[in-house]
Amino acid sequence: MDMEKKSLYDRIYDAVLLIPKGKVATYGQIAVMAGNRGYARIVGNALHRNPAPGIIPCHRVVNAKGRLAPAFAFGGVGEQQRLLESEGVEVFDGFVDLEKYQMR
Asked: Which residues 6+ apart lie within 8 Å of 54 measured at CB?
C-alpha cells in the first residue's frame, strides 16, 4: 500500500517494526519516519493503542533523553525494562544510553 494512503497510525506502526532487536528509537525519530517530525506526542498515543503488542515492538521506543515510559501500557511498570533487557539493552535508573542503543 502507498505510504500516502496508509493511516498515520499505520505509518507509525510500520516505523516501529523497523527498530531492530537490541536497539531503541525515540518518539521523535518514529515521528520523522512516519512522515512528520511534529508528531512525537501522536506516536505515544498510537503506541498506547498498539493493536499487536507482541508483534509491534513498542517497548523499543523511548523519549528523547532515553527515558522509558513511566507506565508502560502493556504489562505496567517494569515490563518495558524487562523486555529491553531481554534483548540485551541495558537500562539504568529508567534510562537507556542512546549513544549505545539508538537505532541510526
From this structure: none
